[in-house]
């Protein structure tokens, strides 16, 4: 008997929750809430505990699925775990029902490409559809011998997204330990979470830190252990606008400085790439001929902007402002000292 498409999607969510090292031992309510959040958003009451019980039974026992998942209930921690810590249904080959569920989900999303809320995800949706259309029978070796897709190792910190999103929606304070890349001891933080942002395969949470009395950014890949959703409510700062917070920034750094007119001159070849894929939404072309492409951007000077400019090497020249031109020049001089 074919498996319900939504059941297959729930199995994947349940598998991810039970296998999570960040939030181990989820109970039935945790699994129910995770499935409801991911499949239906804030529309509550769509999934019952009895549905989760049937899903757990199916994942353990049903031969047509072939999972035979080693799901065990831990009495002391009052939650579920895999007796084999390396087990995951993600490692199993997809069957026809899985492929049909993926196709169903991807094609459903594709119907909403034009909506504002999906614009940032259109590329991801298109990639899923491209992959499925090129490989409808899941013959991976046949496809990869002819086509290579760009891949990322993982989306760092993704396991924390459900609890943070729940805190954002309900205006609840979260608590966690954080280890900076620069070293030092782990520190405990409380945060009023406002926004989640993905940048270069890493997830970040932006929110108000009452200890610093300011809006700050935390990389989720530097969170140590779990994130606690507290019972304490918070009120958002009236001046914070998620749509505008990174309006004048490239990357994840937002500064209080005023944005500046950034004038860049690219070689003709690199200019073609910049023209076809702008560096920022504020980009305006002010010259485009056989000699050079010159663009103007309205941005704050951040570390990510500097790294982006430096990545083009001799194919780019900063024309203005003079302060940024000197900063890039000094970075290049420091680089030369290494060789």
UniProtKB/TrEMBL annotation:
Residues 259-334 form the WCX domain. This is WYL domain-containing protein. InterPro entries: CBASS_pafABC_assoc_protein (IPR051534), WCX_dom (IPR057727), WYL_dom (IPR026881). Pfam families: WCX, WYL. PROSITE patterns: WYL (PS52050). PANTHER family: PTHR34580, SLL5097 PROTEIN. Residues 160-224 form the WYL domain.
């Amino acid at each position: 008997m074919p498996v319900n498409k939504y059941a297959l999607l729930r199995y994947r969510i349940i598998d991810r929750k039970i296998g999570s090292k960040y939030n181990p031992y989820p109970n039935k309510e945790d699994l129910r809430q995770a499935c409801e959040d991911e499949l239906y958003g804030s529309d509550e009451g769509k999934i019952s505990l009895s549905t989760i019980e049937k899903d757990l039974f199916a994942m353990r026992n049903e031969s047509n699925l072939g999972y035979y998942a080693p799901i065990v209930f831990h009495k002391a921690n009052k939650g579920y775990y895999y007796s084999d810590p390396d087990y995951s249904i993600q490692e199993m080959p997809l069957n026809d029902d899985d492929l049909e569920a993926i196709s169903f989900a991807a094609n459903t999303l594709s119907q909403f490409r034009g909506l504002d809320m999906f614009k940032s995800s259109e590329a991801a949706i298109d990639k899923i559809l491209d992959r499925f259309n090129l490989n409808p029978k899941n013959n991976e070796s046949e496809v990869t011998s002819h086509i290579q897709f760009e891949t990322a190792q993982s989306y760092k910190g993704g396991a924390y997204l459900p609890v943070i999103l729940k805190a954002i929606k309900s205006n609840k304070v979260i608590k966690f330990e954080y280890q900076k890349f620069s070293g030092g001891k782990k520190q405990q933080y409380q945060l009023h979470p406002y926004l989640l942002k993905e940048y270069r395969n890493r997830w970040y949470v932006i929110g108000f830190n009452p200890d610093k009395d300011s809006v700050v950014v935390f990389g989720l890949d530097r969170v140590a252990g779990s994130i606690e959703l507290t019972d304490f409510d918070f009120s958002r700062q009236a001046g914070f606008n998620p749509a505008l917070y990174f309006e004048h920034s490239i990357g994840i750094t937002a500064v209080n400085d005023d944005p500046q007119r950034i004038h860049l001159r690219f070689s003709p070849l690199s200019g073609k790439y910049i023209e076809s894929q702008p560096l920022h939404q504020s980009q305006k072309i002010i010259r485009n001929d056989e000699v050079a492409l010159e663009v103007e951007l309205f941005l704050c000077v951040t570390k990510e902007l500097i790294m982006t400019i430096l990545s083009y090497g001799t194919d780019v020249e900063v024309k203005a402002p003079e302060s940024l031109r000197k900063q890039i020049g000094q970075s290049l001089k420091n680089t030369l000292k290494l060789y």
